[in-house]
């Protein structure tokens, strides 16, 4: 299984509308990626390892696929629409990591 993680840095002054991200943006993502996307998860950052410190990421979105090829084939045709929605909820520059899931809950 492949996990595509999109991490939104929690820099000072960053704008991030978590409600829009969860309700609107992820609905667009689900619609665009269809059955190729096996699951979606969203994490909200709470803190860092140091007490009273800000989380390094405001939020993280995770998308699950059977394979890297499945992700690429489903995302490619919709990349412009999905990425074009970012200004509606954030001014943060996301980081993307694609991983192979070795252990899962």
From TrEMBL:
Q: Which InterPro entries match?
A: Dimeric_a/b-barrel, EthD_dom
SUPFAM superfamilies, per the entry: Dimeric alpha+beta barrel
Q: Which GO terms describe its molecular function?
A: oxidoreductase activity
Where does the EthD domain lie?
A: 19-92
Q: A single Pfam family, by name? A: EthD
The protein in question is named Ethyl tert-butyl ether degradation protein EthD
């Amino acid at each position: 299984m492949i996990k595509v993680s999109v991490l939104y840095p929690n820099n000072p002054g960053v704008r991030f509308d978590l409600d829009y991200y969860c309700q609107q943006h992820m609905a667009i993502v689900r619609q665009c990626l269809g059955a190729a996307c096996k699951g979606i998860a969203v994490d909200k950052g709470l803190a860092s390892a140091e007490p009273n410190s800000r989380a390094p990421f405001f939020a993280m979105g995770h998308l699950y696929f059977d394979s890297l090829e499945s992700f690429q084939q489903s995302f490619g045709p919709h990349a412009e629409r999905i990425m074009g929605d970012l200004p509606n909820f954030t001014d943060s520059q996301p980081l993307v990591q694609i991983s192979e899931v070795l252990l899962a809950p």
